[in-house]
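## retry 2 of 3
previous attempt timed out at serialization; input unchanged, resubmitting
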Amino acid sequence: MEAFICVTCGTQYSESATPPKACAICDEERQYVLPTGQAWTTLAKLNMTHMATFREEAGVLGIGTSPHFGIGQRALLVKSPDGNVLWDCISLISPAMIDIIKALGGLTAIAISHPHYYTTMVEWSRAFGGIPIYLNAADQRWIMRSDPCLKLWDGGTLEIGSGLTLIRTGGHFDGGTVMHWATGAGGRGALLSGDLLQVVPDGKHVAFMYSYPNFIPLGAAAVRAIDARVKPWPFDAIYGAFWDRVIPTGGKAAVEASVNRHITLLERNAV
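## retry succeeded, writing output
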């Protein structure tokens, strides 16, 4: 029995004798199935074809995969007095990666922004002793591999460590979550935003999309709701989901400008 991994999105499914007929994550309008059809791999095969990449990004350790795999996001290791937390997840996990992270103090918890980044989260938890994985309960239907380590939470916020608070923003997914890091950015506060407030290439704005690959924007009401949910939290930096997608300072102003631009353009296009 293998726990098959979707090649397009990187999601790992529960063990089965044969691959699933389709990936529920990709066979949905926020993702896509490749023109060549659904394809699967396993963690053992992935370890033969890919390797981990580590890089410091504005005070946080990024953990990625080379060459590109799945959606291509990188995870972030956030240091906390209560223990290190892994923000978002990648499909690849290897003995070398585990050794490196343990040398840095290990992990005490995992928190994930939305289902596109669930990947091999259960493997990651087990590698560090069955640590909790915090997922918003509104996205429970998108869990493709259940395990006792999964901790579903409700409500608007959840503190998972000293100065680390999960904030449900909704938007891209109903349970879409960002993490506020109170001591990030040299004590000015940081927002780890995944795809919910996606840092765009200009480094000055964030995007609000229902589907990024299929170019489906969020409506004005959803964007205003996201803005209202993050506005009370102090932050200067924003860490997006991909390498170099970081706004090291001026994050508050970037969100305000991005919200105004998004809504203005929606209204302009409606005329």
